[in-house]
Protein backbone atom coordinates (compact mmCIF):
# COMPACT_ATOMS: atom_id res chain seq x y z
CA UNK A 1 0.00 0.00 0.00
CA UNK A 2 1.30 3.47 -0.87
CA UNK A 3 1.27 5.67 2.23
CA UNK A 4 -0.54 8.96 2.00
CA UNK A 5 0.20 11.84 4.35
CA UNK A 6 -2.45 11.84 7.07
CA UNK A 7 -4.74 14.83 7.54
CA UNK A 8 -4.28 14.37 11.32
CA UNK A 9 -1.39 15.40 13.51
CA UNK A 10 -2.72 13.92 16.76
CA UNK A 11 -5.26 11.14 16.90
CA UNK A 12 -6.77 9.41 19.88
CA UNK A 13 -7.40 5.76 19.03
CA UNK A 14 -9.91 4.03 21.29
CA UNK A 15 -9.86 0.23 21.38
CA UNK A 16 -12.87 -1.69 22.73
CA UNK A 17 -13.39 -5.36 23.49
CA UNK A 18 -13.65 -7.44 20.35
CA UNK A 19 -11.45 -9.86 18.46
CA UNK A 20 -10.87 -7.15 15.80
CA UNK A 21 -8.73 -5.40 18.46
CA UNK A 22 -5.74 -7.15 16.88
CA UNK A 23 -6.32 -5.11 13.70
CA UNK A 24 -6.02 -1.92 15.76
CA UNK A 25 -2.35 -2.76 16.37
CA UNK A 26 -1.61 -2.57 12.62
CA UNK A 27 -3.77 0.55 12.37
CA UNK A 28 -1.71 2.30 15.06
CA UNK A 29 1.54 1.19 13.42
CA UNK A 30 0.53 2.62 10.03
CA UNK A 31 -0.79 5.87 11.54
CA UNK A 32 2.51 6.36 13.35
CA UNK A 33 4.33 5.69 10.07
CA UNK A 34 2.23 8.44 8.47
CA UNK A 35 3.61 10.81 11.10
CA UNK A 36 0.53 10.90 13.34
CA UNK A 37 1.02 11.16 17.11
CA UNK A 38 -1.28 8.42 18.38
CA UNK A 39 -2.63 8.24 21.92
CA UNK A 40 -4.26 4.87 22.61
CA UNK A 41 -7.00 4.45 25.20
CA UNK A 42 -8.40 0.94 25.81
CA UNK A 43 -11.48 -0.30 27.58
CA UNK A 44 -10.93 -2.99 30.24
CA UNK A 45 -12.58 -5.53 27.88
CA UNK A 46 -10.13 -4.64 25.09
CA UNK A 47 -7.28 -5.65 27.44
CA UNK A 48 -8.70 -9.20 27.43
CA UNK A 49 -7.92 -9.42 23.70
CA UNK A 50 -4.64 -7.52 23.40
CA UNK A 51 -2.36 -5.91 25.96
CA UNK A 52 -1.62 -2.20 26.47
CA UNK A 53 2.09 -3.04 26.07
CA UNK A 54 1.51 -3.83 22.38
CA UNK A 55 0.00 -0.41 21.74
CA UNK A 56 2.57 1.31 23.92
CA UNK A 57 5.37 -0.21 21.83
CA UNK A 58 3.67 0.69 18.53
CA UNK A 59 2.62 4.23 19.45
CA UNK A 60 5.61 5.15 21.62
CA UNK A 61 3.13 6.64 24.12
CA UNK A 62 1.82 5.39 27.45
CA UNK A 63 -1.55 3.66 27.05
CA UNK A 64 -4.44 4.47 29.38
CA UNK A 65 -7.28 2.17 30.37
CA UNK A 66 -8.55 3.52 33.67
CA UNK A 67 -10.48 6.67 34.53
CA UNK A 68 -8.72 6.75 37.92
CA UNK A 69 -5.17 6.27 36.57
CA UNK A 70 -2.88 8.30 38.87
CA UNK A 71 -0.37 8.92 36.03
CA UNK A 72 -2.78 11.61 34.86
CA UNK A 73 -1.73 14.74 36.71
CA UNK A 74 -4.89 16.57 37.65
CA UNK A 75 -7.32 13.67 37.33
CA UNK A 76 -8.86 15.32 34.26
CA UNK A 77 -8.00 12.67 31.67
CA UNK A 78 -11.45 12.89 30.09
CA UNK A 79 -10.95 16.59 29.30
CA UNK A 80 -7.23 16.57 28.57
CA UNK A 81 -7.10 13.73 26.06
CA UNK A 82 -9.78 15.07 23.76
CA UNK A 83 -8.36 18.60 24.03
CA UNK A 84 -5.01 17.27 22.82
CA UNK A 85 -6.45 15.39 19.80
CA UNK A 86 -7.58 16.41 16.31
CA UNK A 87 -10.10 13.55 16.40
CA UNK A 88 -11.05 10.33 18.18
CA UNK A 89 -11.26 7.07 16.26
CA UNK A 90 -12.74 4.08 18.09
CA UNK A 91 -11.59 0.93 16.28
CA UNK A 92 -12.93 -1.62 16.88
CA UNK A 93 -16.16 -0.21 18.31
CA UNK A 94 -18.15 -3.02 19.93
CA UNK A 95 -21.98 -3.15 19.94
CA UNK A 96 -21.92 -2.32 23.65
CA UNK A 97 -19.66 0.68 23.13
CA UNK A 98 -21.89 2.02 20.32
CA UNK A 99 -24.87 1.69 22.68
CA UNK A 100 -23.00 3.64 25.36
CA UNK A 101 -22.03 6.37 22.91
CA UNK A 102 -25.58 6.62 21.57
CA UNK A 103 -26.92 7.09 25.10
CA UNK A 104 -24.18 9.47 26.18
CA UNK A 105 -23.01 7.22 29.00
CA UNK A 106 -19.62 7.68 30.65
CA UNK A 107 -18.67 4.78 32.89
CA UNK A 108 -15.08 4.16 31.79
CA UNK A 109 -12.20 6.30 30.54
CA UNK A 110 -12.92 5.88 26.81
CA UNK A 111 -16.69 6.53 26.99
CA UNK A 112 -16.07 9.47 29.34
CA UNK A 113 -13.59 11.17 27.07
CA UNK A 114 -15.85 10.55 24.05
CA UNK A 115 -18.65 12.32 25.91
CA UNK A 116 -16.36 15.17 26.99
CA UNK A 117 -14.78 15.62 23.56
CA UNK A 118 -14.51 18.85 21.65
CA UNK A 119 -13.19 17.15 18.48
CA UNK A 120 -14.80 14.92 15.81
CA UNK A 121 -15.60 11.30 16.70
CA UNK A 122 -15.29 8.37 14.29
CA UNK A 123 -16.12 4.74 14.93
CA UNK A 124 -15.31 1.50 13.11
CA UNK A 125 -17.92 -1.03 14.31
CA UNK A 126 -16.92 -4.69 14.63
CA UNK A 127 -19.23 -7.41 15.88
CA UNK A 128 -21.02 -10.65 15.12
CA UNK A 129 -23.54 -10.51 12.24
CA UNK A 130 -26.59 -11.00 14.53
CA UNK A 131 -25.43 -8.25 16.88
CA UNK A 132 -24.99 -5.90 13.90
CA UNK A 133 -28.43 -6.64 12.48
CA UNK A 134 -30.13 -6.41 15.87
CA UNK A 135 -32.59 -3.49 15.69
CA UNK A 136 -31.08 -2.04 18.88
CA UNK A 137 -27.63 -1.77 17.25
CA UNK A 138 -29.13 -0.36 14.06
CA UNK A 139 -31.02 2.25 16.11
CA UNK A 140 -27.84 3.18 17.96
CA UNK A 141 -25.87 3.56 14.73
CA UNK A 142 -28.58 5.78 13.24
CA UNK A 143 -28.58 7.90 16.40
CA UNK A 144 -24.81 8.26 16.27
CA UNK A 145 -24.91 9.29 12.60
CA UNK A 146 -27.56 11.89 13.43
CA UNK A 147 -25.27 13.18 16.18
CA UNK A 148 -22.55 13.72 13.58
CA UNK A 149 -20.42 10.67 14.47
CA UNK A 150 -18.72 9.23 11.38
CA UNK A 151 -19.28 5.49 11.01
CA UNK A 152 -16.73 3.56 8.92
CA UNK A 153 -17.95 0.12 7.86
CA UNK A 154 -18.50 -2.57 8.93
CA UNK A 155 -18.03 -4.92 5.99
CA UNK A 156 -19.38 -8.31 5.13
CA UNK A 157 -17.39 -11.53 5.15
CA UNK A 158 -16.23 -14.45 7.23
CA UNK A 159 -16.37 -13.76 10.96
CA UNK A 160 -14.09 -14.93 13.77
CA UNK A 161 -17.02 -16.89 15.27
CA UNK A 162 -17.45 -18.82 12.01
CA UNK A 163 -20.57 -16.94 10.85
CA UNK A 164 -20.73 -15.17 7.48
CA UNK A 165 -22.13 -11.70 7.03
CA UNK A 166 -22.05 -8.06 7.96
CA UNK A 167 -20.09 -6.97 11.03
CA UNK A 168 -16.38 -7.34 10.25
CA UNK A 169 -14.30 -4.28 10.99
CA UNK A 170 -12.97 -2.67 7.81
CA UNK A 171 -9.52 -3.82 6.79
CA UNK A 172 -6.84 -1.45 8.03
CA UNK A 173 -6.13 -0.16 4.48
CA UNK A 174 -9.83 0.59 3.89
CA UNK A 175 -10.09 2.21 7.32
CA UNK A 176 -7.15 4.53 6.62
CA UNK A 177 -8.72 5.42 3.27
CA UNK A 178 -12.09 6.14 4.93
CA UNK A 179 -10.30 8.30 7.50
CA UNK A 180 -8.55 10.25 4.75
CA UNK A 181 -11.73 10.56 2.67
CA UNK A 182 -13.66 11.97 5.64
CA UNK A 183 -11.16 14.83 5.90
CA UNK A 184 -11.56 16.16 2.36
CA UNK A 185 -12.91 19.72 2.25
CA UNK A 186 -16.50 19.74 0.98
CA UNK A 187 -15.64 22.04 -1.91
CA UNK A 188 -18.14 20.40 -4.26
CA UNK A 189 -21.20 20.32 -1.98
CA UNK A 190 -24.40 20.48 -3.98
CA UNK A 191 -22.58 19.98 -7.30
CA UNK A 192 -23.76 17.28 -9.67
CA UNK A 193 -21.08 15.38 -11.58
CA UNK A 194 -21.32 13.13 -14.62
CA UNK A 195 -18.16 11.07 -15.15
CA UNK A 196 -17.19 8.54 -17.82
CA UNK A 197 -14.65 5.83 -17.02
CA UNK A 198 -12.99 2.72 -18.37
CA UNK A 199 -12.63 1.47 -21.93
CA UNK A 200 -15.42 0.76 -24.38
CA UNK A 201 -15.85 -2.60 -26.09
CA UNK A 202 -16.88 -2.68 -29.75
CA UNK A 203 -18.28 -6.06 -30.76
CA UNK A 204 -16.87 -7.98 -33.72
CA UNK A 205 -19.13 -10.98 -33.19
CA UNK A 206 -20.98 -12.69 -30.34
CA UNK A 207 -17.78 -13.27 -28.31
CA UNK A 208 -15.08 -10.99 -29.71
CA UNK A 209 -14.52 -7.29 -29.79
CA UNK A 210 -12.14 -4.34 -29.99
CA UNK A 211 -11.19 -2.65 -26.74
CA UNK A 212 -8.16 -1.04 -25.05
CA UNK A 213 -6.10 -1.39 -21.87
CA UNK A 214 -7.90 1.25 -19.79
CA UNK A 215 -8.46 -0.16 -16.27
CA UNK A 216 -11.01 2.46 -15.18
CA UNK A 217 -8.87 3.27 -12.11
CA UNK A 218 -8.55 7.00 -12.83
CA UNK A 219 -12.25 7.52 -13.65
CA UNK A 220 -13.34 5.60 -10.54
CA UNK A 221 -10.85 7.60 -8.44
CA UNK A 222 -12.34 10.85 -9.82
CA UNK A 223 -15.83 9.57 -8.91
CA UNK A 224 -14.71 8.71 -5.36
CA UNK A 225 -12.88 12.00 -4.87
CA UNK A 226 -15.89 13.99 -6.11
CA UNK A 227 -18.16 12.23 -3.59
CA UNK A 228 -15.65 12.76 -0.77
CA UNK A 229 -15.78 16.46 -1.59
CA UNK A 230 -19.57 16.52 -1.36
CA UNK A 231 -20.66 16.07 -4.99
CA UNK A 232 -23.47 13.87 -6.27
CA UNK A 233 -21.99 11.51 -8.85
CA UNK A 234 -23.32 9.61 -11.84
CA UNK A 235 -20.63 7.33 -13.24
CA UNK A 236 -21.02 5.92 -16.74
CA UNK A 237 -18.56 3.06 -16.97
CA UNK A 238 -17.34 0.79 -19.72
CA UNK A 239 -16.37 -2.80 -18.79
CA UNK A 240 -13.87 -2.74 -15.88
CA UNK A 241 -12.97 -4.86 -12.85
CA UNK A 242 -13.18 -1.89 -10.46
CA UNK A 243 -15.45 -2.28 -7.42
CA UNK A 244 -18.52 0.00 -7.73
CA UNK A 245 -17.85 3.26 -5.88
CA UNK A 246 -20.27 3.34 -2.95
CA UNK A 247 -22.77 6.14 -3.17
CA UNK A 248 -22.43 6.79 -6.92
CA UNK A 249 -25.17 6.19 -9.44
CA UNK A 250 -23.30 3.63 -11.58
CA UNK A 251 -24.48 3.06 -15.15
CA UNK A 252 -22.70 0.21 -16.91
CA UNK A 253 -22.31 0.35 -20.67
CA UNK A 254 -20.34 -1.60 -23.23
CA UNK A 255 -19.92 0.31 -26.50
CA UNK A 256 -19.13 3.97 -27.24
CA UNK A 257 -22.62 4.44 -28.68
CA UNK A 258 -24.17 3.11 -25.45
CA UNK A 259 -21.85 5.41 -23.48
CA UNK A 260 -22.97 8.41 -25.56
CA UNK A 261 -26.64 7.50 -25.05
CA UNK A 262 -26.15 7.10 -21.26
CA UNK A 263 -24.27 10.41 -21.04
CA UNK A 264 -26.92 12.31 -23.02
CA UNK A 265 -29.75 10.75 -20.99
CA UNK A 266 -28.11 11.81 -17.70
CA UNK A 267 -26.84 15.30 -18.48
CA UNK A 268 -29.83 17.30 -17.26
CA UNK A 269 -28.95 19.37 -14.19
CA UNK A 270 -25.26 18.38 -14.17
CA UNK A 271 -22.72 21.04 -13.22
CA UNK A 272 -19.60 19.18 -14.31
CA UNK A 273 -18.81 16.55 -16.96
CA UNK A 274 -15.47 14.72 -16.58
CA UNK A 275 -14.66 12.50 -19.57
CA UNK A 276 -12.06 10.06 -18.30
CA UNK A 277 -13.14 7.10 -20.44
CA UNK A 278 -10.80 5.81 -23.13
CA UNK A 279 -13.47 5.64 -25.80
CA UNK A 280 -12.71 3.43 -28.81
CA UNK A 281 -12.22 5.58 -31.89
CA UNK A 282 -13.91 3.05 -34.19
CA UNK A 283 -16.69 0.49 -34.05
CA UNK A 284 -17.24 -2.53 -36.27
CA UNK A 285 -19.87 -2.10 -38.94
CA UNK A 286 -22.25 -5.07 -39.09
CA UNK A 287 -20.91 -7.21 -36.22
CA UNK A 288 -21.90 -10.85 -36.56
CA UNK A 289 -24.63 -12.13 -34.25
CA UNK A 290 -22.92 -15.53 -34.21
CA UNK A 291 -19.35 -16.50 -33.53
CA UNK A 292 -17.39 -16.05 -36.76
CA UNK A 293 -15.94 -19.38 -37.89
CA UNK A 294 -12.22 -19.62 -38.43
CA UNK A 295 -11.07 -20.43 -41.99
CA UNK A 296 -8.02 -19.90 -44.16
CA UNK A 297 -9.17 -16.63 -45.71
CA UNK A 298 -8.23 -13.10 -44.72
CA UNK A 299 -10.92 -11.58 -42.56
CA UNK A 300 -11.67 -7.93 -43.23
CA UNK A 301 -13.48 -5.84 -40.65
CA UNK A 302 -15.09 -2.60 -41.70
CA UNK A 303 -14.64 0.09 -39.06
CA UNK A 304 -16.56 3.34 -38.76
CA UNK A 305 -15.67 6.28 -36.51
CA UNK A 306 -17.38 6.44 -33.12
CA UNK A 307 -19.07 9.62 -31.94
CA UNK A 308 -16.90 11.91 -29.80
CA UNK A 309 -18.87 11.94 -26.55
CA UNK A 310 -17.01 14.87 -25.02
CA UNK A 311 -17.40 16.96 -28.19
CA UNK A 312 -21.14 16.21 -28.19
CA UNK A 313 -21.40 17.57 -24.63
CA UNK A 314 -19.08 20.58 -25.04
CA UNK A 315 -20.98 21.70 -28.13
CA UNK A 316 -24.39 21.75 -26.44
CA UNK A 317 -25.96 25.23 -26.17
CA UNK A 318 -25.57 25.31 -22.36
CA UNK A 319 -22.90 22.69 -21.50
CA UNK A 320 -21.78 21.79 -17.98
CA UNK A 321 -18.17 22.62 -17.04
CA UNK A 322 -16.26 20.06 -19.13
CA UNK A 323 -12.99 18.33 -18.23
CA UNK A 324 -11.18 16.13 -20.75
CA UNK A 325 -8.35 13.63 -20.34
CA UNK A 326 -5.59 13.04 -22.86
CA UNK A 327 -3.06 10.24 -22.92
CA UNK A 328 -0.13 10.99 -25.21
CA UNK A 329 3.03 9.03 -25.96
CA UNK A 330 5.30 12.07 -26.60
CA UNK A 331 5.31 15.90 -26.58
CA UNK A 332 2.75 15.70 -23.79
CA UNK A 333 2.03 19.37 -23.12
CA UNK A 334 2.15 20.48 -26.77
CA UNK A 335 -0.18 17.75 -28.07
CA UNK A 336 -2.52 17.93 -25.10
CA UNK A 337 -2.83 21.72 -25.26
CA UNK A 338 -3.58 21.45 -28.99
CA UNK A 339 -6.32 18.92 -28.14
CA UNK A 340 -7.73 21.19 -25.43
CA UNK A 341 -8.03 24.11 -27.80
CA UNK A 342 -9.41 22.00 -30.66
CA UNK A 343 -12.01 20.50 -28.30
CA UNK A 344 -12.75 23.91 -26.76
CA UNK A 345 -12.25 22.65 -23.21
CA UNK A 346 -11.69 24.88 -20.16
CA UNK A 347 -9.59 22.14 -18.52
CA UNK A 348 -7.74 19.06 -19.71
CA UNK A 349 -5.72 16.56 -17.66
CA UNK A 350 -2.84 15.10 -19.64
CA UNK A 351 -0.67 12.11 -18.88
CA UNK A 352 1.80 9.90 -20.65
CA UNK A 353 0.47 6.68 -22.13
CA UNK A 354 2.93 4.58 -20.09
CA UNK A 355 1.31 6.01 -16.92
CA UNK A 356 -2.27 6.12 -18.05
CA UNK A 357 -3.25 2.47 -18.36
CA UNK A 358 -3.60 0.09 -15.45
CA UNK A 359 -1.10 1.64 -13.00
CA UNK A 360 -2.08 2.67 -9.46
CA UNK A 361 0.06 5.79 -9.66
CA UNK A 362 0.42 8.41 -12.33
CA UNK A 363 1.60 11.93 -13.07
CA UNK A 364 -0.74 14.55 -14.53
CA UNK A 365 -0.42 17.97 -16.11
CA UNK A 366 -3.53 20.15 -15.86
CA UNK A 367 -3.93 22.53 -18.80
CA UNK A 368 -6.21 25.54 -18.73
CA UNK A 369 -6.24 29.09 -20.10
CA UNK A 370 -3.70 30.11 -17.45
CA UNK A 371 -1.14 27.49 -18.54
CA UNK A 372 0.23 24.14 -17.39
CA UNK A 373 -0.06 22.94 -13.78
CA UNK A 374 1.99 19.78 -13.17
CA UNK A 375 0.82 17.32 -10.50
CA UNK A 376 3.74 15.13 -9.40
CA UNK A 377 3.58 11.33 -9.32
CA UNK A 378 1.07 10.08 -6.74
CA UNK A 379 -1.65 7.46 -6.27
CA UNK A 380 -4.57 8.12 -8.63
CA UNK A 381 -6.93 8.99 -5.76
CA UNK A 382 -4.58 11.79 -4.66
CA UNK A 383 -4.29 13.10 -8.24
CA UNK A 384 -8.09 12.94 -8.55
CA UNK A 385 -8.47 15.06 -5.38
CA UNK A 386 -5.95 17.62 -6.68
CA UNK A 387 -7.71 17.74 -10.07
CA UNK A 388 -11.08 18.34 -8.39
CA UNK A 389 -9.69 21.07 -6.13
CA UNK A 390 -8.59 22.77 -9.34
CA UNK A 391 -12.06 22.23 -10.85
CA UNK A 392 -13.70 23.66 -7.71
CA UNK A 393 -11.65 26.86 -8.12
CA UNK A 394 -12.69 27.19 -11.76
CA UNK A 395 -16.44 26.63 -11.27
CA UNK A 396 -18.64 29.70 -11.47
CA UNK A 397 -19.41 31.00 -7.98
CA UNK A 398 -23.02 31.13 -6.81
CA UNK A 399 -24.36 34.66 -6.31
CA UNK A 400 -24.19 34.38 -2.48
CA UNK A 401 -20.53 33.21 -2.65
CA UNK A 402 -19.34 36.24 -4.65
O1 LIG B 1 -9.32 10.09 -27.59
P1 LIG B 1 -8.92 11.48 -27.24
O2 LIG B 1 -7.47 11.62 -26.88
O3 LIG B 1 -9.39 12.52 -28.21
O4 LIG B 1 -9.71 11.76 -25.87
C1 LIG B 1 -9.70 13.04 -25.29
C2 LIG B 1 -10.92 13.20 -24.42
O5 LIG B 1 -12.10 13.01 -25.18
C3 LIG B 1 -11.03 12.24 -23.26
O6 LIG B 1 -11.53 13.00 -22.18
C4 LIG B 1 -12.03 11.19 -23.71
O7 LIG B 1 -12.77 10.65 -22.63
C5 LIG B 1 -12.92 12.01 -24.62
N1 LIG B 1 -13.48 11.22 -25.74
C6 LIG B 1 -14.82 11.02 -25.84
N2 LIG B 1 -15.35 10.32 -26.90
C7 LIG B 1 -14.53 9.83 -27.84
C8 LIG B 1 -13.15 10.03 -27.76
C9 LIG B 1 -12.64 10.72 -26.69
O8 LIG B 1 -15.58 11.45 -24.94
N3 LIG B 1 -15.06 9.17 -28.85
Strand order of the largest sheet: 12-11-8-13-16-17-18-19
Distance between the termini: 41 Å
Tell me the CATH superfamily of the largest domain: CoaB-like
Provide the CATH topology of the largest domain.
Rossmann fold
Total domains? 2
* Computed structural class: alpha/beta
CATH class group of the largest domain: Alpha Beta
Low-confidence stretches: none
What is the tally of beta strands?
19
The fraction of residues in strands falls at: 15-25%
Please state the overall shape, judged from the principal axes of the Cα atoms: elongated
Q: How would you sum up this structure, described in words?
A:
With 402 residues, this protein is of the alpha/beta class. It has two domains: 10-182, Flavin prenyltransferase-like (Rossmann fold); 192-401, CoaB-like (Rossmann fold, 3-Layer(aba) Sandwich). The protein contains 14 helices and 19 strands. Helix 4 crosses helix 7. It is elongated. The two termini are 41 Å apart. The protein binds cytidine-5'-monophosphate (C5P). Cytidine-5'-monophosphate binds next to helix 11 and strand 16.
Brief characterization of the structure:
With 402 residues, the protein is of the alpha/beta class.
Question: What brief labels describe this structure?
Answer:
Rossmann fold; alpha/beta; 2 domains; binds cytidine-5'-monophosphate; 14 helices; 8-stranded mixed β-sheet; single chain; 402 residues; 24% strand
Amino acid sequence: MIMAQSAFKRLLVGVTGGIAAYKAAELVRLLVRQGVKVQVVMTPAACQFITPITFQALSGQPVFTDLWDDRIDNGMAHIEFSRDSDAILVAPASADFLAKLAQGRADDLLSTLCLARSCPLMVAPAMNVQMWHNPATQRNVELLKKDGVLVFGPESGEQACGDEGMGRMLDVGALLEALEASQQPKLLSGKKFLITAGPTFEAIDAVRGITNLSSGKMGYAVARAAMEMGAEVTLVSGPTCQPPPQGANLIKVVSAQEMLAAVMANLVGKDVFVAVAAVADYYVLNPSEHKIKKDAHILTLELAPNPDILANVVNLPDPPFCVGFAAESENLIEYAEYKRRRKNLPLLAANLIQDAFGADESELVLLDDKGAHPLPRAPKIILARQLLRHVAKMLPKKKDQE
